[in-house]
Design a protein that fits this description.
Helix content: 10-25%
Number of strands: 14
Largest sheet: 5 strands, antiparallel
Structural class: alpha/beta
CATH class of the largest domain: Alpha Beta
CATH topology of the largest domain: Quinone Oxidoreductase, Chain A, domain 1
Strand order of the largest sheet: 8-3-4-5-9
CATH architecture of the largest domain: Alpha-Beta Complex
CATH superfamily of the largest domain: Medium-chain alcohol dehydrogenases, catalytic domain
Distance between the termini: 32 Å
Order of helices and strands: EEEHEEEHEEEHHEHEHEHEHE
Radius of gyration: 20 Å
Bound molecules: zinc ion
Length: 258
């Protein structure tokens, strides 16, 4: 099969590789759509806990090609998406239901081969059926959207609160949509790209502010006391530091970007 293989730091190639083998409790998925995540760039730049060579790609959807002998919930032809994280289910954190801190975390496309390929092997416990009417492209957004929804839960937003989001990339825009459905009265977006801000406005942002050096005074005008919830969706340390200044006293600061 063809796959995009990260060979070494900043070096990748599309080449013919062996097809993945199907373990008894795993499923082989024929990939139909796969997102490119900021994490994939970190992996390529050797800033993550992956080893080379690796086939990245962890935000994907596809069709079940083959199932292992112990698999009971899926059959060939099923449309699926996946949670790429494979928790050990037996460490301290898994046992106290905080498996996002799993001490033995593995992940499809991070510590084992992922979906920048025609076929990917996925443990059955990580797979989800796609509801009828959802396209493969939409279903490939399930993982980033799930991260966003968890972030919104952590923000403890209450009805009527004002939200400020730094970064109008795919994650910032997903946050915008999800905060609007979670009771925010006003969502303001900041970015260096006018094009991204236009999209944010189309998606319902109440205010968009271009980060051109004058954004501080504009944000003070929108919310003189600050915002109840401020989110960084850029992962840039300088922005993360600046964003903190716009949190209302007793507000919440959500560090989302990595
Ligand atoms: Zn991702
Ligand atoms: Zn664990």
């Amino acid at each position: 099969m063809l796959a995009c293989v990260f060979k070494a730091k900043n070096s990748w190639v599309v080449e013919e590789v062996a097809e993945p083998e199907c373990a008894p409790d795993e499923v082989i998925v024929r990939v139909k759509a796969c997102g490119i995540c900021g994490t994939d760039l970190h992996i390529l730049q050797a800033e993550y806990f992956s080893d080379f060579p690796i086939i990245a790609g962890h935000e994907f959807s596809g069709v079940v090609e083959q199932v292992g002998e112990k698999v009971t919930q899926f059959k060939p032809g099923d449309w699926v998406t996946a949670d790429p994280n494979i928790f050990c289910d037996r460490c301290y954190y898994c046992k106290i239901n905080k498996n996002n801190h799993c001490l033995n975390l593995q992940a499809v496309g991070v510590t084992r081969n992922g979906a920048f390929a025609e076929l990917v092997a996925v443990p059955e416990k990580c797979l989800f059926h796609i509801p009828e009417g959802l396209s493969f492209q939409e279903a490939a957004m399930a993982e980033p959207l799930a991260c966003v929804i968890y972030g919104i839960q952590r923000s403890n937003i209450r009805p009527g609160e004002k939200v400020l989001i730094f970064g109008a990339g795919p994650i910032g825009l997903l946050l915008l949509c999800a905060f609007q459905k979670s009771g925010a009265s006003l969502v303001t977006m900041v970015d260096i790209s006018e094009k991204k801000l236009n999209l944010a406005q189309e998606l319902g942002a109440c205010a968009v502010v271009l980060a051109d050096g004058s954004e501080g005074s504009k944000l003070r005008k929108i919310a003189p006391l600050g915002f109840e919830v401020v989110v960084d969706a850029t992962g840039i340390p300088a922005v993360q530091e600046k964003a903190l200044h716009f949190v209302q006293p007793d507000g919440t600061y959500l560090l989302f970007g990595v």
